[in-house]
Amino acid sequence: MQTASKWRYYPWLLTRPTLLGGAGLVTILRLLPFYYHAGIRIVVSPFGEIENDVFVASLRAALEILREFDPLRYSRVRRCIRTVHATRLRRAIAGYWPIGRMCEVNWPRILGLTDQSTGRVLALADVLVHEATHGAVFARFIAYDRARRHRVEALCKKEERRFRRRMEETMPRVTERVTLLLSP
To answer: Which residues, in sequence order, are CB contacts of 68 under 8 Å at separation 6+?
Structure first.
């Protein structure tokens, strides 16, 4: 008689976060392999569907770029995001779960956006800024309901644009720093 692996049903559960709710998903993510960087837990997939090494290196580089070139948004990311999880999402590039202050990132979709490592790192930094803004809005007890959704998303996108504008001002230094961070 063969025993079932403890990971056997997790891919099914992780693709249906609305079925579990935020608390159930956060509980399951505690069982998965993880790394820490700057106080943020980076959860990786044990199933081989996502390139874990590339994701972890890119996320660490994105956090370092935020720390070095935009300290205000970096402090917001550290304050509002406790866990970052690479997964496959059906529709979105990323999502924020207030329970557990968790950010889910659709890593395969970000990989499809650009072939350049600098572009991937900046896209990941954009996602972190956007989702941390969701966390800041939630921390101020502003509901994310149908009536306010448009305004909250507009605020998050505005914050993303501010971050991108700041990165464009220092693009040669950012590119050089990303290359240095990602080099073996």
So the answer is: 177
**At residue 36, what are phi and psi to the nearest 5 degrees?**
-120, 140
pLDDT of residue 25 exceeding 70, the answer is no
Give the angle subtended at the CA of 67 by the CAs of 151 and 98, to the nearest 5°.
40
Q: Which residue has the tokens 């559960």?
A: 13
Greatest mean pLDDT among 64-73, 100-109, 112-121, 141-150 lies in 64-73
Model confidence at 84, pLDDT cuts 50, 70, 90, reads very high
Give 66's contacts (C-beta < 8 A, 6+ positions apart). Answer: 73, 74, 77, 125, 128, 129
Output b/e per residue, 38-52; b: 16+ Cβ within 10 A.
eebbbbbbeeeebbb
Strand partners, 41: 36, 83
- CA torsion sign for 45, 32, 156, 128 is negative
Residue with structure tokens 């990786």? 44
- CA angle at residue 122 from 161 to 181, to 5 degrees? 145
Helix (H) or strand (E) holding 66: helix 52-69
